[in-house]
Design goal:
Radius of gyration: 18 Å
Structural class: alpha/beta
Oligomer: single chain
Helix content: 40-55%
Strand content: 15-25%
Length: 227
């Protein structure tokens, strides 16, 4: 079954070019030219990956990503934007985006990022149904996380990071290994990016709960543990 994607991009020529190439690669593509229409399509349909331009009418890409997460959807989101500053990327991640590609970009890079996002979202949950660490429950089938029975909303990338740490059963996972597993080997991701995502996870998983579960083992990486 072909993967179904939604592209929300107000540049009609760029949208048509991307759609044509993705269809050639075997994907099913819906398109919208403003954020409000994109939001309505997401409410009515199930997509495997979402591509949002940042600067578009109706509702911008940041707001649209945030809206998707409020719908409790964990569908991978990739932002397409002319802005490349770290503050813009952090804003996108904070709104629920999983990846970020700066215009102008080569289609091969976009395709690679889409494939990584799809693989990442399917990577876990085939054999196990859930992982439990203390009062933290990771439902792999439903892609939901609970701490002391309180639901916690995570982006697809945050969910994968947490699952990798939990799956290691207390053993530390290095930053290099996290980068390779979550982002793949095709992209230049530095260790600061991992630190940003770990801090985002800590704010959601540990900030309002005890004991703190996400730990750092200096020189080795991160792990989940009660002590």
């Amino acid at each position: 079954m072909n993967k179904k994607l939604l592209l929300v991009e107000d540049d009609i020529k760029l949208s048509n070019d991307i759609k044509k190439q993705l269809v050639f690669e075997g994907f099913e593509i819906d398109t919208a030219f403003d954020g409000l229409l994109g939001e309505r399509l997401i409410q009515r349909n199930q997509y495997d990956c979402l591509l949002f331009d940042v600067n578009m009418p109706g509702k911008n890409g940041y707001d649209l990503a945030e809206s998707v997460r409020k719908m409790k959807k964990t569908t991978p989101i990739i932002l397409l934007t002319a802005f490349g500053e770290i503050e813009d990327k952090l804003q996108g991640f904070d709104c629920g985006a999983d990846d970020y590609i700066t215009k102008p970009f080569h289609f091969k890079e976009l395709l690679a990022r889409i494939k990584v996002a799809l693989k990442r979202s399917e990577h876990y949950g085939i054999e196990k149904k859930s992982i439990i660490v203390a009062d933290l429950v990771i439902d792999l089938a439903k892609k939901q996380v609970y701490r002391n029975d309180v639901p916690i909303k995570l982006t697809a990338r945050e969910f994968l990071l947490l699952t990798i740490l939990a799956d290691a059963q207390g053993s530390p996972v290095s930053k290099k290994e996290l980068i390779k597993t979550v982002w793949g080997t095709s992209f230049e991701i530095n260790t600061n990016t991992i630190e940003v995502f770990i801090n985002l996870l800590r704010n959601k998983i540990d900030k309002n709960f005890t004991p703190k579960l996400i730990k750092t083992r200096s020189g080795f990486g991160y792990y989940l543990g009660k002590d």
